[in-house]
Amino acid sequence: MIGCVMALEAALLPCLPARELQAIDRSPHPSHQIDVERHARDFMEAAKKLQLYFIGLQREDKPTMSETLRKDIAMMEEELKVKDELIKKQERLIQGWRKELKDQAEKHNTELERV
């Protein structure tokens, strides 16, 4: 992003009214020299504002560390909920199998006792 701002500054620099500034710069009148300095100062202030704007955009695009951590924690909590539900389903399934096995064992035991 900083490279973009520097490229923008380099591109805007030639936009200063060069002929006018050169003519004023050669002028013996001190008020003309002040105009040159004012134009240069105005240009640099505008470039600085653009730079700050682009840096602000860069900061907006990049989430803060706390936002990133909050997102990560929320994702982990959601993953934990899903896994807890899966574990509960599997535990219920295992309990059902145990009951079926117990019933079958009792059935086989009663048949063996008859014989």
UniProtKB/TrEMBL annotation:
One Gene Ontology cellular component annotation held by this UniProt entry: mediator complex
Q: Which GO terms describe its biological process?
A: regulation of DNA-templated transcription
In terms of superkingdom, the source organism counts as Eukaryota
Do you know which Pfam families this protein is assigned to?
Med28 (PF11594)
Q: Where in the cell is it found?
A: Nucleus
Q: Which keywords are on file for this protein?
A: Coiled coil, Nucleus, Transcription, Transcription regulation
Q: Which InterPro entries match?
A: MED28 (IPR034456), Mediator_Med28 (IPR021640)
Can you tell me which residues the record assigns to a coiled coil? Answer: 73-107
Q: Does the record's keyword annotation contain Transcription regulation?
A: yes
Q: What is its main location?
A: nucleus
Tell me which PANTHER family the record gives. MEDIATOR OF RNA POLYMERASE II TRANSCRIPTION SUBUNIT 28
The UniProt similarity line reads: Belongs to the Mediator complex subunit 28 family.
Protein's recorded name: Mediator of RNA polymerase II transcription subunit 28
Q: Which organism is it from?
A: Salix brachista
